[in-house]
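Example: Response regulator transcription factor.
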Amino acid sequence: MISGEACPQHGQEGVVPVRILVVEDEPKMRTLLRRALTEEGYAVDTADDGPQALSIAQVAAFDAIVLDIMLPGLDGFEVCAQLRRHGQRVPVLMLTARDAVADRVAGLDGGADDYLTKPFSLDELLARLRALIRRGPAERPPVLEAGDLRLDPATRQVRRGRTGITLTAKEYALLEALLRRPGTVLTRDMLVEQCWDFATSPYSNVVDVHIRSLRDKIDRPFGTTAIETVRGAGYRLRRDGGRPTTPPAPS
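Written out as structure tokens, the predicted fold is:
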């Protein structure tokens, strides 16, 4: 179901309504949210499943999205992730009946801006929405590049030339740390501080193990050497991203 509704004051000439998309599959909750937001003066559109929400968001501009996690078709995590992959920076407030820390972390890591657990107070939801709308869309972070090696923080995609590369969370964190300071030697202490928690000892081989696995994905298949070992100091990413020295391995 898709519906749009704006309150009378937004019908005035020259006034641009603040537009909200509510994505909620439970009819009573969807109606409640639409009514409450409309009474606050927002123009409200609704969708009741994930694919529909993506279709609407791709053809209309919204000031914020209220997104339930438990949706048919695509869940809220995937809807949010796809919006971010397509460059949509609209603020997203996630709603869920689950209160697990892992769910909150997954939502925020997927690109959500805020998180509210059901049951919730309408006053709190409205206050959080006002804060998100005042903040506006998050500025898209710049793509990090060294030669043909690219890391996009907005979508968390990594590419070598036209080839996409899948990294683990720790491999991604290491590569991002190195790409933010190309040509600079980063010690093991610095990498541990940026990519691990305080309980990790810089004297362990955890950094070396993950650097080795990162090289196996961004260097060896392409016949390059982007990450250099600086003996007695740490690691450095070449500014040129590692020029190919041998033909790339067949994919």
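The two ends are 44 Å apart (CA to CA).
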